[in-house]
Design goal:
The protein has strands at 6-8, 11-12, 27-29, 38-42, 48-53, 62-66, 80-85, 94-99, 106-110, 119-123, 136-140, 149-153, 160-165, 174-180, 190-194, 203-207, 213-218, 225-229, 242-246, 255-259, 265-268, 286-291, 299-305, 315-319, 325-329, 332-335, 338-343, 353-361, 364-372. It is an all-beta fold and 375 residues long. Mean pLDDT is 81; it is low at 11-22 and 272-285.
Length: 375
Amino acid sequence: MSGVPFEHDGELLAFPFFGGVDFFLPQFLDLEGDGDLDMLLGNLEGRFVYYENLGAPNAPAFHWVSDNYQNLRAGLYATAAPVFVDIDADGDLDLFSGDFYYGRIAFFENRGTPQTASFVVNSSNFQGIDVGNVSAPYFADGDRDGDFDLYVGKDNGGTVNIYENLGSPQQPNFVKRKALTHPVPIDDSVPCLYDWDNDGFLDLFLGQRAGKILYYRGTAVLDSFVFVSSTFGGIDVGLNSAPRFVDWDNDKRVDLIVGEQAGGLNYFRAPVQAHVDLRAEAPRAFSLHAYPNPFAKQVTVRVNANAAHFRAAPRLRVYNLLGAVVAELNLQQETAETWRAQWLPNTPRVTSGVYFVEVKWGKVQFTRKIFYLPQ
């Protein structure tokens, strides 16, 4: 983020999440009870990465603490999508997480205090909610009745499933009320609610795979939204936008933080358009995808790159957990900016388990973990 230092083991990081965090969905909250906002985000293994804010409330400075916060895990082989809410009205924040594989929601109850959080697994499939694949939950009091309702984004079509809380602030009971579809094609919706126009109704903002943000104006309580724009604020972060409204610098004005797949944070001050983290532009020149993942027979590796930034041809290798090369693949160019290769394991030394796909292009290197699970 522009002007915000990130530190890992004493080293200041220019690109703190480059290549290490996919579907970047940040959450900001005061985990230490010291009056400033810390940051938690999900990683590719379904675990949570924690950065403590050692700066001041109006001048954040993030210090890496853990890649496995409190040994919590949202699910196997699934990128975690965390969100915090006091779901049982006991005065501390509980942790929920969608995942970018199964479509369920994990619930970690906070049995600590507002100053010292201690999370324990309450449910790996909260209230039986399952939206198919790629769940991204967000809690808000949509009907203004004093308890939290639930909005869950998903993959194909980006439908937002809206659940009304018919229970109480202490004992929620979520009932599905609506599946909101969209007038424009999107995938992998990431919802966020905020009263942008200050009319007393929550508006709906959706991150999505294409990197833009959809904007719906709330016209009544809970689930009445009018589509306004598919390009809110002209924002485009490349791939997998994940918006969050937060008073980032404690100036009593709400800012917009947008995560992205390339591993960057984009920072916008109101009015939207002022500040963008230019350092996040660099990773977008190069990205690596592997699908399906896990795979049973064959995995496809796709590289997106702006060839103008590189001189040498890309190199692709597959490593096992011991660091031995088990395959070297030729990337076939599809377009001016995309290359593809397919790996079909067919040697005795390639057994089921975890492997790493590495692509090098000049001085740029990307690695993706893949799971080979033959049937």
